[in-house]
Amino acid sequence: MTTLVTGASGFVGSAVLRRLVEAGHQVRALVRPTSDRRNLAGVECEIATGDLDDRAALDRAVAGCDALFHVAADYRLWVTDAGAMYRSNVEGTRQLMLAAAEAGVRRIVYTSSVATLGRRPDGTPADEATAAASGDMIGHYKKSKFFAEAEVRRLIETAGLPAVIVQPSTPFGPRDVKPTPTGRVVVEAAAGRMPAYVDTGLNVVHVEDVAAGHLLAFEKGEVGESYILGGEDMTLRALLETVAALAGRRPPRLRVPHWAVLPVAYAAEALARRRGRGDPIVTVDGVRMSRKRMYFSSDKARRDLGYAPRPGAEALRDALDWFRAGGYLDRNPGSPRRG
Predict the structure, then answer these.
(1) Which pLDDT value is given to residue 337?
(2) pLDDT at res. 285
(3) In the chain, what are the domains?
(4) Residues of the chain with confidence (pLDDT) below 50
(5) CA 220, CA 210: separation in Å to the nearest integer?
(6) CA torsion sign, 241 to 244 to 249 to 254?
(7) 3-class SS at 53?
(8) Which residue from 151, 123, 159 is spatially nearest to 52, judged by alpha carbons?
(9) Residues 122, 124, 130, 135, CA torsion sign
(10) CA 319 to the chain's CA centroid
(11) CA-CA distance, 238 to 316, in Å (whole number)?
């Protein structure tokens, strides 16, 4: 079986790639020409070079494939060109799904996000049925993933697209080379550069459990259904305390109200624009999202797929070990990553 994986050089995509290779799939990895390929080192797979905005490259990539895992996404909480994010996450997804359908791909796993889901008024964890509207989405990343998932669902209903949808929560673990916005939290906390926190919460999951959930969705999921691939709900304070304990540092004790952080976020974004490089240390969308605890239930995936995630502390430990080994804790914020 030839299986195409998009985003295979990225954080989640490389974990999915490795899991598929271990399961015996013949994997073809779609990789952008400019992608950092360190996560592909030592993995037996075919490389197909192309971008999501190049339909001809997508047609070549899916040719002869039996299965598709579309993991690639532009995941940033701050962008200077929002149009590029929508072209990649929404239009790129649509074109890839059409290319796969025309090529006769028999099984598709589409990686969406819990970002597309709503919140329950009583604060209990949301599940796959917790609906949201586009107006509920904060920031271009969430909006683009919302519209991309809607496009996949439309093609399932109108064109018989053989797709299963998975919705990972907040992954942590090894091979977060960028690192992702959430990976940066671990780096900064472990390096003692996060003196304060806001009152929020998130669902922490090991990236390798997310990868295992992808394979379970491929093997057992129902076409048209979605499955949350989450782990453990944790307050940001508990997360930072866990990282601090693992790193041998004192955790931050100062809780800052959201209204006080918002001006800092605006200033940080303005500085990043002036510099023309690097990401702001805190973003406006990130502060706005943190006003609500983003807790989720993976009960459906546990029941229907046999999904069994490990405790959040293990995900944070493995992430920290990988960042430490890679020298990430020794860098200054905003410094370029090492090759």
Answers:
(1) 41
(2) 65
(3) 2-178+203-232+296-311 (3.40.50.720)
(4) 333-339
(5) 15
(6) negative
(7) coil
(8) 151
(9) positive
(10) 14
(11) 11
Decide the pairing of beta strands 254-255 and 226-229: unpaired
Q: Are 173 and 319 in contact (CB under 8 A)?
A: yes
Residue 147 tokens read as 């519209």
Q: Which residue has the tokens 């195409």?
A: 4
pLDDT at residue 154, as a whole number = 97
DSSP label at residue 110: E
DSSP conformation letters of 137-198: --HHHHHHHHHHHHHHHHHHHHH---EEEEEE-EEE-S---S--HHHHHHHHHHTT---EE-
Residue 336: per-residue pLDDT: 38
Residue 179: left (phi > 0), alpha (psi -120 to 50), or beta? beta
Q: What is the pTM of this model?
A: 0.91
Length of the chain: 339
Paired tokens of 157? 């209903």
Q: Residues 6 or more apart from 202 whose CB is under 8 A from it?
A: 169, 170, 182, 233, 234, 236, 239, 293, 294, 295
φ/ψ of 294, rounded to 5, equals -100, 80
Amino acid at site 92: G
Q: How far is CA 323 from CA 103, 221, 228, 239, 338, in A?
A: 40, 33, 26, 16, 12
